[in-house]
């Protein structure tokens, strides 16, 4: 087995109809800053060292109906509902909750203003 290489998540890349507007939503949700925005590209910096950034580029093809990948965000236990409410106030759409599928996580699935899926999850305290 090869030892760990020190790989980390640098950025999540997203195609967008309006890169500036979608970057503004994600910057507000995640606490980063929009940097280097043009009509075709926008970059949201990581909120803190070790966090992940997001890069938005102009969509050139229609969005696929099925999204095979999405971002899962984690919040402290007991704060998921408040964070879902905040995301909705910022422009997200709440789609559904999964509260009892497995004992180690509860999550809510949402879409951002352009319809990209993401989840907000909480894990119960150990013990």
From TrEMBL:
This is VOC domain-containing protein. Residues 8-123 form the VOC domain. It comes from the Bacteria. The lineage of its organism: Bacteria, Bacillati, Actinomycetota, Actinomycetes, Geodermatophilales. InterPro entries: Glyas_Bleomycin-R_OHBP_Dase, Glyoxalase_6, VOC_core. Pfam families: Glyoxalase_6 (PF18029). It comes from Trujillonella endophytica.
